[in-house]
């Protein structure tokens, strides 16, 4: 018997050359049940496994796969699952995972989370009134990298319940909002504790319009929430993007520009109320602070680390933040829009300078087809192309993305009988 698992279409095992069952899509819970049915561990009439366990994907399905491997005398799955980990590290990781019934591997500590996703999971666990242990993966690179392989889960935070991986931030949020997280804790015998966190009262119901959880006025809380959500990407910084007033703010601005992300900013030096209030609102004591779709990502160190690992680009993509087109991107696209491309003043049938007219005539006399762009219609392209090509005048002729030259060079090539061959190689 063989088992094949693909992301979008899953043939559930081939037995004697026949496909027993198939699953399309990426529903881990359904996958776990279909695999389990073939294994004989779930009867056709039995109810499905909890979706919360299916959401974890890795543990549920892998355990079933391991059973298949064991029954067929193979341990390849298990070997591949934790390849490259020493027995000592595996033991250490398992010990950490089992150190608390509910265990969170996060960036920072519950009182001082160092990324927005870790902070969100901490907040959810507090709302669920669950006592949990935590481990700051920023303090131990061996644990950090090892746990990614051990759990087959590439990002943090990672939440475990009774030794089983539930998932990361998005999964925990989904389970919390659907009520499944509470069910999982109950099914696993996780005892609830009385909440030590004050609840947020409805707007205006606290004394003097003060929210009991933060001590901020409801007016200020509302304003901060509006600012945080004023754009898909918002940076609270010292100064302005073109005139940052601190090196950390400057660094985050540079990172966002490198990632080609459009963002709004707020200069916290211009408003002391916002400056002090946001520290309380976000539970983050320093600046800059970067928010994506209303969620705190973190400060300079976190943003830099996420960029280096590629996690920032992944988060932006998951949140639907598309890269903006830079002038360089646009120029490259224009230049490559035709094998022979002429940037000129006016149009081929109505040139607006003698040099452009001469190049058009030369190309037509040689029978060369070409595309064109009127640089008089777009000042950004006109000025940008001078820098991009390091050529200060127009027209400019390109062949297969390479600059041939201006009017004088084109006429010289034609005179020498080399123009057509230069544009058809």
Automatic annotation (TrEMBL):
GO biological process, one term: intracellular iron ion homeostasis
Keywords from the named record: Iron, Iron-sulfur, Metal-binding, Signal
The keyword Metal-binding is assigned to this record: yes
Gene Ontology molecular-function annotations: iron-sulfur cluster binding; metal ion binding
Gene3D superfamilies reported for this sequence: Glutaredoxin
Record GO cellular component, one term: cytosol
Highest taxon, organism lineage: Eukaryota
Domain Glutaredoxin: 102-165, 233-297, 340-404
SUPFAM superfamilies assigned: Thioredoxin-like
Leader peptide range in chain numbering: 1-17
Protein family membership: Belongs to the glutaredoxin family. CGFS subfamily.
NCBIfam families from the UniProt entry: Grx4 family monothiol glutaredoxin (TIGR00365)
Protein name per the record: Glutaredoxin domain-containing protein
Organism for this UniProt entry: Ficus carica (Common fig)
């Amino acid at each position: 018997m063989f088992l094949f698992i693909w992301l979008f279409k899953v043939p559930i095992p081939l037995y004697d050359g026949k496909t027993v069952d198939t699953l399309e899509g990426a529903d881990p819970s359904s996958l776990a049940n279909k695999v389990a049915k073939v294994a004989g561990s779930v009867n056709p009439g039995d109810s499905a496994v909890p979706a919360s366990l299916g959401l974890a994907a890795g543990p549920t399905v892998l355990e079933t796969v391991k059973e298949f491997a064991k029954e067929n005398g193979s341990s390849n799955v298990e070997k591949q699952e934790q390849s490259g980990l020493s027995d000592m590290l595996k033991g250490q990781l398992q010990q950490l995972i089992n150190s608390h019934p509910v265990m969170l591997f996060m960036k920072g500590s519950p009182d001082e989370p160092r990324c927005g996703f870790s902070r969100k999971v901490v907040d959810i666990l507090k709302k669920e009134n669950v006592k949990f242990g935590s481990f700051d993966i920023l303090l131990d690179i061996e644990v950090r990298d090892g746990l990614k392989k051990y759990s087959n889960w590439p990002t943090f935070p990672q939440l475990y319940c009774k030794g089983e991986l539930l998932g990361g931030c998005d999964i925990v949020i989904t389970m919390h909002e659907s009520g499944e997280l509470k069910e999982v804790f109950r099914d696993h015998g996780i005892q609830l504790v009385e909440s030590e966190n004050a609840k947020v009262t409805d707007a205006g119901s606290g004394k003097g319009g003060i929210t009991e959880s933060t001590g901020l006025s409801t007016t200020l809380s509302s304003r901060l929430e509006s600012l945080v959500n004023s754009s898909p990407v918002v940076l609270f910084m010292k100064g302005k993007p073109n005139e940052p007033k601190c090196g950390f703010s400057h660094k985050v601005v540079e990172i966002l520009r490198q990632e080609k992300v459009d963002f709004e900013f707020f200069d916290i030096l211009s408003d002391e109320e916002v400056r002090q209030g946001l520290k309380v609102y976000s539970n983050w004591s320093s600046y800059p602070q970067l928010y994506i779709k209303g969620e705190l990502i973190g400060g300079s160190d976190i943003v830099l680390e996420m960029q280096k690992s590629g996690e920032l680009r992944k988060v932006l993509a998951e949140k639907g933040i598309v890269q903006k087109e830079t002038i360089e991107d646009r120029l490259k696209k224009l230049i490559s829009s035709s094998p022979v491309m002429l940037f000129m003043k006016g149009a081929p049938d109505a040139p607006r300078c003698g040099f452009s007219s001469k190049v058009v005539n030369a190309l037509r006399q040689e029978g060369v087809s070409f595309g064109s762009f009127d640089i008089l219609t777009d000042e950004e392209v006109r000025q940008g192309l001078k820098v991009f090509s390091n050529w200060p005048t127009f027209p400019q002729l390109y062949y297969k993305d390479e600059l041939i030259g201006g009017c004088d060079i084109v006429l010289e090539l034609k005179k020498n009988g080399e123009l057509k061959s230069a544009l058809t190689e």
